[in-house]
Amino acid sequence: MQQYFIKGPAQSPVTVEDKDTLKHMFSVLRLLEGDQVLLVFDDGIKRLARVLDREAHQFELLEELDDWLELPLQVTIASGFPKGDKLEFISQKATELGAHKIWAFPADWSVVKWDRKKLLKKADKLSKIALGAAEQSKRNLIPEIELFEQKTDFLSRLGDFDCVLVAYEESAKAGETKSLVQRVQQLEAGQKVLFIFGPEGGLSPAEIETFENLGAQTVGLGPRILRTETAPLYALSAISVLKELLVSDKA
Amino acid sequence: MQQYFIKGPAQSPVTVEDKDTLKHMFSVLRLLEGDQVLLVFDDGIKRLARVLDREAHQFELLEELDDWLELPLQVTIASGFPKGDKLEFISQKATELGAHKIWAFPADWSVVKWDRKKLLKKADKLSKIALGAAEQSKRNLIPEIELFEQKTDFLSRLGDFDCVLVAYEESAKAGETKSLVQRVQQLEAGQKVLFIFGPEGGLSPAEIETFENLGAQTVGLGPRILRTETAPLYALSAISVLKELLVSDKA
Questions:
Q1: Within chain B, how many helices (H) and strands (E) appear?
Q2: Number of domains in chain B
Q3: ipTM of model
Q4: Does residue A192 sit in the same domain as residue A92?
Q5: Which of A119, B47, B53, B176 has its CA 20 to 30 A from that of A130?
């Protein structure tokens, strides 16, 4: 069933205001009175709703569903600004794979230089991509997008996390394979993880040192060398395997 | 160091013949006599080589390296024909993530209809993408691409594998989380796995039944609904975590 995110607290009846959402509901899906959809408000709970009045864009909430598909850890992905539209790609795929937030920062070896205006425009585009991917993958939350103009602002936020991991190509090359598993297995449900990825050229030795001085740990992502836009997908999949598949008693 | 795949058995000196490879070596990288690269012949062993004669495109092999970055399981990805250029995307990313072979087949709910001519052209394009991704990710092997015109030909190959897994959205929705881990953990190094993925609309119930009758098992890929092009990346990452990170004593 089609799912839509609606800003604000849950209320019934609710009038949908967002233009893109309305367009999809009534022009693409062509909802009629009585048709049902899932509405997800700020609390992340999915609620079955039906169209009360299609002219007034009004829905009645019918019942709360109990499915919660969020990763047990709150994982923030932070990519050094990559070239072209790779952040668009990362935003879509990281959302599908359960990222809690998606950040990017100007890394030493980032080739692109994005000013404030460009970053605002880009963040707006990425937010829309994350919204679409969150609806499609049936997430309870839409990942927040934050693009840092200054690396110092990014660095000042590392202390907000229970664990900071840095994907490091040299770890992969050195055959380092245990750190990721060990650190992730130590974390408990609800804890916050920041996972940092370099741009195409990787992270500079100075950056690695800065991150380590701020408490971060470098980890390998298996033996193969992954592109900058592929590494976050491996990392999120790995966290899902370790925290959702290996620990579950559901099935 | 730059890596190139060279067809044929290892020999020294070796004359490189492939035009695209030569162009990259001498026009892009501008190799000079004495410069070193990695050459990988049909046996998958990486060999350090140096330019003997740049006019004659001749290299001398110096030594064998012992790094072997292939997944311990031989994983073949088989996607129901997806729309647009998603197979290009899957070929690049699945190669980075260690796929042994990349297949695609006309699934019941595939929207695209590709005839023999189109499939030959597409396979050629995908092979080039896989080659580039294999070099970039430092693979020992280039995944073979095979696009099936007839589903029956695809089905007749299921018996070649030690294990056939089917990514099934309904498994994810039902909260099924253990089958993937259980099946992958049972497999031993060198065994062959076929991992089947549906197109955008998913696999039809009839297809699922056919696969199951041929010995396949449906598995979930975590609780979130993944797009057709994202599911193979999760699956390969999961196999890497289970077979490379969790079992290793290297680090």
A1: 8, 11
A2: 2
A3: 0.94
A4: yes
A5: B176
